[in-house]
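Section 4.2 – Deliverable D4.2 (structural model, holo form)

The reporting period included a commitment to supply a predicted holo structure for the target in complex with magnesium ion. Inputs used:
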Amino acid sequence: FSPTDVTVIFVLGGPGAGKGTQCARLVRDYGFTHLSAGDLLRAEQDRPGSQYGQLIQDCIKNGAIVPMEVTVALLENAMRDTLTAARTRKGRFLIDGFPRKMDQAVKFEEVVCPAKMVLFYDCPEEEMERRLLERGKTSGRADDNAESIRKRFRTFVETSMPVVDYFEKQGKVVKVDSTPGPDKVYEATRGQLRRVFG
Ligand code: UP5
Ligand code: MG
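Output (C-alpha cells):
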C-alpha cells in the first residue's frame, strides 16, 4: 500500500493508561481500524509454529520490548490484510501501544508511513497500577502482576517516553489526561480530535 493512502494515529501512554479502552470507542464512532501491537504480539506468541513464541513470551513477562523487526512486520501485515479484506487502498488506523522505542518509531515511518498525530494518554503510576492489579484478577495476562508491572513502568519511563518527546518536538502530540473515568477521558479525546481533524 502507498503511504499517501493510509492515515495512521499512534496511541501511546503507560501500561494501563486506557489506550485499548479509548481505541474501542474511537472505532465505534469514527470507523478507524484498531491495531494493538500488544494484541498482535500475544496472537503471534500463541500461533502454532511461530519461531518467535518464546521470545515474545519472555519479553512480555519482563516488560521488555520485542525486537522491532517482529512488531513492525506484524503491524504491516495486519494493515495489508485489513485493506485487502475491505478491497480498498485507503485506510485509517489507530496503532495502539506502538512505537515504544526510538528504533521502532524510525523504522515504521521509513517502511510504512509517518503518523498524522500521536494521542498520548497521561496517567499517574499509582492509578495505572491500581487498574492493572484489578484487571489482573481476571485478565489472565502474564504481565498483570506486581513484579511485571514494576518492570513495565520502568521500560515506559526509560525507553518509551523518549519516543513521545521525539514526536512532541514535531508538534504531533495531543495529550489527554486519562486519570478520570473512561467517559470523561473519551469526551476530552473527541474534543482534541475535532481540533486536529475539524
Ligand atoms: N480502565 C481503562 N480506562 C480507565 C479509566 N479511564 N478509568 C478507570 N479504569 C479504566 O485499560 C487497563 C484497565 O484499566 C482495564 O481493566 C480498563 O477497564 C481500565 P486498557 O484500556 O486495557 O489500558 P491500556 O493502556 O491498553 O493497557 P495495556 O495493559 O494494554 O498497556 P500496555 O501498554 O502495558 O500493554 P500492551 O499490550 O500494549 O503491551 C504489552 C507488552 O507487549 C509490552 O510490555 C511489551 O513487552 C510488548 N510490546 C512490545 O514489545 N512492542 C510493542 O510495540 C508493543 C508491546
Ligand atoms: Mg492495551
